[in-house]
Amino acid sequence: MPVRVPTTRRYLMCPPRYFAVEYAINPWMDPARPVDTEAAMAQWTELRDTYRRLGHTVEEIDPRPGLPDMVFAANSATVVHGRVLGARFRARQRAAEAEHYRRWFVEHGYSDVVMPARINEGEGDFVWTGRMLLAGTGFRTDPAAHAEAQETLGVPVLSLRLVDPRYYHLDTALFVLSETTEGSPGQIAYYPEAFSPGSRQVLARLFPDAVLAGAEDAACFGLNGVSDGRNVVLPAGAGALADRLADRGYFPVLVDASEFRKSGGGPKCCTLEIRK
What domain range is 15 assigned to? Predict the structure, then answer.
C-alpha cells in the first residue's frame, strides 16, 4: 500500500453568522426546514479547527447580512499558482457574494485577480488535480466558462457533464484524494451515477484507480470531502466511504456538517483552497 503523505494547505472560510435557507436553488433546499444557526456555527468552528489541528492555515472572510450562502466559500473563486479566477453566480440571490470575495483577494495582496464573463461557481465546479482542472457543467457553470478558465489560469481544463440535479456542482460528486505529481498519478473519489456516460468513460480512463462511492455515501455529501493527501475530512454519515479510504491508506476524519446539508453543502463547500 502506498505511504500517504499530507501536504500543508491554505484555506479561506466564511463564518455562517447569517446562514439560513431562505430560497431554493437546488433539490436539497427547503425554506420550510429551519436552520439551527447556533448548531451551524458550532459545526463550522469544528471544521475550521480540524483543519488547523491537521496543520493547515485557515483564513477568514467576514460574512455579510443578506447573503445566507456566503458560508460556502468554495463557490467564490478558483486559485491556482497564485492566479485568482473569481465567480459569477447563476442564481441572482448569490450574485453579490462574488464582489465581496474579489475584494478580499485584492486587499490581501493578490494582484492577478480576474472576474469572469461567463457563469462559473468557483471550486464548486472546478476541481484541481495537480496537473489539470476538472470542470463540471450541466446545472450551474456555463460550458464556455471552461475555456475561460483555461485562458485565465493557464492550465489544461477537462469538461465533465453532471446529469443528476441532486449533484448540481462537481464538488458534490467528486474530489481529489491525492494530487498528480511527477512521481504519482494521483487519485480521486467520485460517484459515477452523477455523470453522463461519456464523462464516466473519461474518468475511468484517466483515473483507473479511483475510489468509487455508492448512492448512500453520495446522498450524505460524502464526495464533498477535503483531502491533504493523507487526512480526508468527510461528513459524519459517510462511513462506508471512510472505510474504503482507510483500506487505501488514507486517514478519514469525520465531522458533523448536517446543518449545511440542508442547503446542499458539506465540508468542501465551506472551504476554498488557496494555491500559491
Answer: 10-273
CATH for 231:
3.75.10.10
Q: What are phi and psi of 264, to 5 degrees?
A: 80, 35
Please name the residues in contact with 182: beta carbons below 8 A apart, sequence gap of 6 or more: none
Number of domains, the chain:
1
Active-site position among 14, 56, 146, 269: 269
Among 171, 169, 168, 145, which Cα is nearest to 157's?
Answer: 145
- Of 56, 169, 220, 270, which is the active-site residue? 169
Whether residue 1 has pLDDT greater than 80: no
Q: What is the mean pLDDT of residues 4-13?
A: 97
146 is known as an active-site residue: no
Q: How does the average pLDDT of the chain come out, rounded? A: 97
